[in-house]
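Notes from hallway chat w/ T.B., transcribed later so I don't forget. T.B. wanted the structure written out for a chain they're using in a teaching module, and asked if we could keep both sequence and structure tokens in one place. Agreed to drop them here.
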Amino acid sequence: MSSNKCKDNLKAQKYLQLWGIRPDLWPGENGRYLPAIYILTNVNKVLKKDEIDQLQSRVILKLCHMEMLFPLFL
């Protein structure tokens, strides 16, 4: 992605500071800004089997909760 097409730039973050919203995205005292919290690092690109198993069990539990809130009518 080209830097001139990115919406997460210093100007945008100064506007957030001006408006008083999202202080976690404001530029630092040195005028630089931190990258967004959703940027992947080399460590986040690796899936571990135990993490996948935990996610699967959580998805199953969430689906059960959703079915209790929104029962299927057949």
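Follow-up for T.B.: The chain has one domain: 3-69. Might be a good example for the class.
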